[in-house]
Amino acid sequence: MSHSFVCVCPHLSIYNNCLFILNTPFAVSLFLQRIPFLLFLVSRKLVKTCWGEEEVSELVMSGGQLGVLNALDVAKTQWYHFTAIVIAGMGFFTDAYDLFCISLVTKLLGRIYYTDLSKDKPGVLPPNVQAAVTGVALCGTLAGQLFFGWLGDKMGRKKVYGLTLMLMVVCSVASGLSFGDNPKSVMATLCFFRFWLGFGIGGDYPLSATIMSEYANKKTRGAFIAAVFAMQGFGILAGGIVALIVSSAFDHKYKLPSYEDDHAGSMVHAFDYVWRIILMFGAVPAALTYYWRMKMPETARYTALVARNAKQAASDMSKVLQVELEAEEDKLQHIVENQNQKYGLFSKEFAKRHGLHLVGTTVTWFLLDIAFYSQNLFQKDIFSAIGWLPPAKEMNAIHEVYRIARAQTLIALCSTVPGYWVTVATIDYLGRFFIQLVGFFFMTVFMFALAIPYDHWTKKENRIGFVVMYSLTFFFSNFGPNATTFVVPAEIFPARLRSTCHGISAASGKAGAIVGAFGFLYAAQNKDPSKTDQGYPPGIGIKNSLIMLGVINFFGMVFTLLVPESKGKSLEELSGENEENGAEGIEIGGSARTVPV
User: Average of pLDDT values for 288-305?
Assistant: First the structure.
């Protein structure tokens, strides 16, 4: 008997030594009885291969968690994770390209459509036109974040995801077209299509973040969501590179004098194609990923917890994870009947559980984007003010585009892109709270370090130092709150409200971007009326504007105290969706502490 037992134990490598036992009817009978046990051992070995010993223990002990959701939480990093990052990330690549490339061509638009050849300086966009061209996409983004965030919770992430991408492709192309050739018609057409471009971009924020958070495992979820957002850095970099290539090509074809040497000869009609090509190129990466977005299955958390279809969720994720998953319809029914699954966005229960969290995510994103977008959209003005870019009259129209693109590409390459990917590498080790707090702290420090001795930095021998310090503010915004404000709202709210709450948080950020874009446009003007840009009233100057941004960053650090730490926890644990009736959700200072301990 003891020998028969050994034959069907996990030590299967010694089965050759026991084959003689199988010659007896009794041994055959015993072997057949042990087949289920053997199948269990084999299946357990396969699961260990996919997830690992520690993860198997979690899978077995999942308790009230749906098996399909727990399988996603404990899965090792697999190919589908990278596929999801690329598919969602290319949307953000396009978002950043489209939002920030406009700052590369506004000077060119001013020269083409608003130059008065009788004056000593080339034309610039009038203040109201500059504000509209720069800010209209941000207004569209704000509206899109609210609308598509809400729609993503009502219709499903996947159904809305393709719609936002097609809107971005169509409007990217259309923004390079014009109804008429006079300044008013060109600017009206540009603003109209950039608003709807922004509307599509806005939908990408809550949907991409929510989809990635719901696909990711809990150990590396922060890195995966941050990696999607980090594609924004490559989008900004690509905008600069495309502008460099296009402007270099035109500059070599038309070797023109500067505006100072020849007012009329510093520009040719063909330059009107330059800004159109740069804007329209944003449609290419978005169009390339449309097919793959449509092939992605709906997230299991939406299908199970919101659509309440356990069978479909298990079927979809079985294909994704390449492992059989059970459709636990009875367990799902128990979960969705829980009171934790029934409160709405405007209920007292939501305010009690997540009210302060929503305040924290919205206010910190609002304050961050005031600083971030004012810096990004008006880099060219700051570089001109410190003399890093020559005066406009000393360049021809296309060379000015080249110099602006080169400066912004250098900043993106040396600080923006590295900052994003340092966050990706460290967010699941250092935690969201720590990175956001430290990021706001150093942004505050470097802003004040630039602003207080501003006259020192404007001297020719110190200009490189200014650019280095300015780059460090970008590094710590991206290795800091610019990434974490995107990640956290996709983790801490219930599945049925996750996309909506992320959309609200992101829309608050875009409201800050609008304040930064419009406010800084006027505030950064020189105090001396004779030194302001054409058509602008005197402002408070670059120095005082930087001081204001430093104060804003400080308040961002304060409001970070309202944001919970979400590192290493499942989405249902963070949102309280698996708790029994009456149990508390995550609280500041509770199980998901604000300050890591």
Answer: 86
Distance, CA of 140 to CA of 336 (rounded, Å): 35
| Greatest Cα pair distance in the chain | 110
Tokens of 115: 């130059």
**Are the CB atoms for 335 and 313 separated by under 8 Å?**
no
Distances in Å between the Cα of 41 and the Cα atoms of 8, 11, 36, 163, 324 are: 10, 11, 9, 46, 16
Please report which helix (H) or strand (E) contains residue 162, including its range: helix 157-174
Write out pLDDT tens, residues 513-563: 988 877 777 777 777 777 776 667 787 877 888 888 899 999 999 999 999
Cβ-based neighbour number of residue 31 at 10 Å: 15
Question: What would you report as the CA-atom Rg of the chain, rounded to the nearest whole angstrom?
Answer: 28
> Does an H or E element contain 478, and which?
helix 463-478
Cα–Cα–Cα angle for 234, 236, 239, nearest 5°? 105
pLDDT value at 50 more than 60: no
Give the type of residue at 12.
L
Q: Identify whether the C-beta of residue 521 lies closer than 8 Å to the C-beta of residue 128.
A: no
- 404-436 pLDDT, tens per residue? 888 888 878 887 788 889 999 999 999 999 999
Residue with tokens 């948080």: 505
Query: What are the Cα distances from residue 57, in Å, to 14, 74, 556, 577?
Result: 27, 10, 40, 22
Residue 267 has pLDDT above 70, yes or no: yes
How far apart, in whole angstroms, are the C-alpha atoms of residue 197 and residue 511?
17
Q: Check if the beta carbon of residue 495 is closer than 8 Å to that of residue 214.
A: yes
Average pLDDT over every residue of 559-578: 87
- Answer yes or no: are the C-beta atoms of 185 and 299 closer than 8 Å: no
Structure-token pair, residue 297:
């299955």
> Rounded CA gap, 410 and 413, in Å?
5
Residue 368 has pLDDT above 50, yes or no: yes
Average pLDDT over residues 83-103: 88
**pLDDT tens, position by position, 469-492:** 877 888 898 899 999 999 999 999
C-alpha span between 262 and 185 (Å, rounded): 28
Tokens coding 433: 């709270």
DSSP track, 490-543: GTSS-HHHHHHHHHHHHHHHHHHHHIIIIIHHHHTS-SSGGGSPTTPPP--HHH
Q: What share of the chain is helix, strand, coil (3-state, %, to 5)?
A: 75, 0, 25
Work out the burial of residue 17: count CB atoms within 10 Å of its CB; fewer than 13 is exposed, 13-18 middle, 19 or more buried.
exposed
pLDDT at 8 over 50: no
Q: How far is CA 520 from the centre of its chain?
A: 23
Confidence of residue 309 (pLDDT cuts 50, 70, 90): confident
Residue with the two structure tokens 């009456």 = 582
Q: What are the start-end ranges of the H helices in 289-393?
A: 290-295, 300-301, 310-321, 329-336, 348-377, 379-385
Confidence of residue 83 (pLDDT cuts 50, 70, 90): confident
Instruction: Tell me what pLDDT residue 407 has.
Output: 83
Going from the C-alpha of 201 to that of each of 35, 45, 176, 501, 505, the distances in angstroms are 55, 44, 17, 17, 15
Residues in the chain: 597
The span from the CA of 506 to the CA of 95, in Å, is 13
